[in-house]
Design brief:
The protein is mostly helical and 333 residues long. Helix content is 68%, strand content 0%. It has 15 helices and no strands. The structure holds 2-acetamido-2-deoxy-beta-D-glucopyranose (2 copies). It is an enzyme of class 2 (transferase).
């Protein structure tokens, strides 16, 4: 084994051990009826996806009360739940029994759920981190290893995924694969990876503007025929989207229902459990009393676009990887 593989292996083992130690603790909502927490939300989606026809996944019905953890993530999350649901059912069908498994808790089931998160993390996020730092970052191999290790040991991600219980490493991993592909000058593969990330968690929309601006800008700055590249990128994006959404596109009502579940504008721009800048500001200014929901939504959209506009224009005009990475960081702030 050469030195690089040994380093990667040791780094991965260290990252896995820390994750496993965290996951031995309880998850959020453990033993707290009636709603429990995100662990139950994920388990419930496995139950729904396994038992219900695909068209009913996002629709309220006698077997799918949307008030009880209705699915509100994009199709790839639902497909992931479906696959996990099949595996869960093959281990012990009581884990995903329709209606009867609500709030199911057992040590065996917890072990299974923890393994699903670890597997997704190690297969999607880990390799993206290694390829990104060893192929796309500058510096000595020692600094690359340290950067990779620091990223893998980032406490926020470990605590939320392996403690609290979520699958952020999937969308984050796909996003990092997309950035890596762009760094390696593979714009088509990068587009596919980013569309997949977006279709796992709609939160990735935050990153969409820099991707769009960088790719569009680079269409018309490169040596290649810009229009042809633009057509290729557009086709790849639409085909990937189409594959993710195919089962929900055959019936317009179903499509509308999925979209309204993903962007629940009727519920307002923030809810008590979801924190964002509007939520923090509302302590000082009571937005919800001053404006209607639809005007609040417009304010949100306009302020976000205005804040992003400067580096989006800059990226369109002078696309470079360095500016692209800066814009990705900017937009989150
Ligand atoms: C959704 O379905 C549940 C269970 O059948 C029902 O109690 C609830 O009223 C329905 N909600 C809506 C908004 O139709
Ligand atoms: C399935 O899970 C239930 C509930 O935890 C348990 O009572 C049962 O023994 C399990 N069945 C098997 C085959 O492990």
């Amino acid at each position: 084994m050469n030195e690089l593989s040994a380093t990667v292996l040791l780094t991965a083992v260290a990252a896995i051990v820390i994750r496993w130690c965290v996951s031995l603790n309880s998850y959020s909502g453990e033993g707290k009826p009636p709603m429990f927490g995100d662990y139950e939300a994920q388990r419930h989606w496995m139950e729904l996806a396994y038992h219900l026809p695909i068209k009913q996944w996002y629709v309220n019905g006698s077997n799918n009360d949307l008030q009880y953890w209705g699915l509100d993530y994009p199709p790839l999350t639902a497909f992931h739940s479906y696959v996990c649901g099949i595996v869960a059912n093959s281990f012990n069908s009581s884990w995903v029994a329709l209606g009867e498994s609500h709030g199911h808790e057992s040590s065996q089931h917890k072990l299974f759920m923890r393994y699903t998160v670890l597997l997704a993390d190690v297969t999607i996020f880990f390799p993206a981190v290694f390829v990104y730092f060893y192929q796309c970052s500058r510096g000595t191999s020692q600094t690359k290893t340290l950067a990779g290790l620091t990223t893998l040991l980032y406490p926020g991600l470990i605590l939320i995924d392996h403690g609290h219980f979520q699958y952020n490493s999937v969308s984050l991993g796909l996003w990092l694969w997309a950035v890596t592909a762009l760094c390696l000058d593979s714009h088509l593969l990068g587009s596919v990876a980013f569309v997949l990330a977006l279709n796992y968690k709609q939160m990735e929309l935050y990153h969409a503007l820099p991707f769009f601006a960088y790719l569009l800008g680079s269409c018309f700055k490169g040596k290649e025929n810009g229009l042809w590249k633009f057509v290729k990128l557009g086709t790849v994006v639409m085909v990937t989207f189409g594959c993710c959404w195919l089962p929900f596109l055959q019936d317009l009502q179903v499509t509308q229902q999925v979209v309204s579940r993903l962007f629940p504008v009727g519920r307002g721009i923030f809810e008590d459990k979801v924190a964002n800048v509007w939520c923090s500001l509302s302590v000082l200014i009571k937005f919800k009393q001053l404006f209607s929901t639809s005007s609040l939504l417009n304010i949100c959209l306009i302020t976000t676009l205005c804040a992003s506009l400067p580096h989006v224009i800059d990226l369109l005009w002078r696309p470079s990887l360095h500016r692209f990475k800066l814009a990705l960081v900017c937009i989150i702030g």
